[in-house]
Amino acid sequence: MDLLDTLVDKGLRREPPTRDEALAVLATRDDDLLDVVAAAGKVRRHWFGRRVKLNYLVNLKSGLCPEDCSYCSQRLGSKADVLTYTWLKPDEAAAAAEAGVAGGAKRVCLVASGRGPTGRDVERVAETIAAIKEQNANVEICACLGLLSDGQAARLREAGAHAYNHNLNTAEAVYGDICTTHEFTDRVATVQKSKEADMSACSGLIAGMGESDADLVDVVSALRELDVDSVPVNFLIPFEGTPMAREWALTPQRCLRILAMVRFVCPDVEVRLAGGREIHLRTLQPLALHVVNSIFLGDYLTSEGQAGKADLDMIADAGFEVEGTDTTTLPEHRERARADLVAMRHRGAGTDLPPNA
Predict the structure, then answer these.
(1) Among 304, 294, 238, 299, which Cα is nearest to 269's?
(2) How confident is the model at residue 309 (pLDDT cuts 50, 70, 90)?
(3) Radius of gyration over every alpha carbon of the chain, rounded to an integer in angstroms
């Protein structure tokens, strides 16, 4: 297909597809699906080889969130049958993180429900980061605590957080359809604050919430515009007890096309296969490894993933290898550009560089 040849050429040059080209990927026929995956795989291998980065979630605080995000089992008024608990102690979180690191995880993602952290919450997370780093000094820490206030991103960076996650989830034009307690621009502002604090920005989307192809292209284009380093692609898990409990529109083929579109739009960033992969991709999960270069190991926030050993077997059987802690995930040009930006910012501020800058 001429379209796929064009997209591969652009991906190898870090040039984004046009809007029409991105939409065309989502509109390809099932008969062409393997060609689409193969084309996206060429771009993936060019920038990331056959490495797969493993990430592990530690849910620090679960449930009772005051926000009304329609997709979330922890939302205000949720009747979903999920665990609710307040903050894990640092040693408890470190023990949970150790299980993921032992399984090969390179990054530990510390997640807490809620609109955003208080100052005390940030200090709790700082203590947890210290406890994890004491056991595994080289592990990457990504915090995901909701909307950030001024100064909180800098404090997390000082504490040793490598990255901050805050997903855009869907396109700005339809964001009000899934949430009314905050706005799309609030999410963008938090991503920008994490970047300004010299953290690696991680922000992605949720597919399967009734959005159009245009909405998917718009949110991925917004992520490219923000120049995030990592794009987690989640597929909606329709929890009973939430407004989206009946949203079962995704097919494995549709999921693969979405992943391919994300790869073409964001060719040289970490594209992570995240929540919902087991129930929506099912037996086609190994094909997704030819498009993404990162997955979560084991369970998610309020849902179970497949066993960690099954993930490792899948990676090996598909001919890929787990990325080690001695390997830089992002291509050299992205790491160099980020380091130069950090250095320039600190020269301008007259401050020393933070650890791991």
Answers:
(1) 294
(2) confident
(3) 19
